Fold:
Amino acid sequence: MKSHTGGCHCGAVRFRFDAPARVLAHECNCSICAKSGYLHLIVPAARFSLLSGSESLREYRFGSGAARHLFCSRCGIKSFYVPRSNPDGYSINLRCVDEGSLEAIEVEAFDGRNWERNAASLAHLSVE
Structure:
């Protein structure tokens, strides 16, 4: 495990998480992920910490309302959120991780358009 840092575009929101230097990311084709270009790395809540910017975060919920989509109120970037599939963890947008932190990212497609059928395949990702 290695500590990685990242944040939103304007720098108001900063976070840290622990993960290997080489990670498997999920690229989801659901409506919100496809439109925002989100690249997921789900980690347990114990391996994530918000360093700054809690006052800048705003929340958006849709559909079932279970996922807590958090975005910076200054620049609009969603650098992490609490996913419906893993309410005990965080999904980090790997496009918001500081450059040079990760050695390699393998990307796997995730069929979020058929979420109910596929969500169980993500459940293990937030288990410590």
Observations:
- Residues 13 and 54 are 7 Å apart (CA to CA).
- DSSP finds two helices and ten strands in the chain.
- The beta strands are 2-7, 14-19, 22-28, 39-44, 48-52, 57-60, 68-72, 80-82, 89-93, 104-110.
- The mean pLDDT is 95.
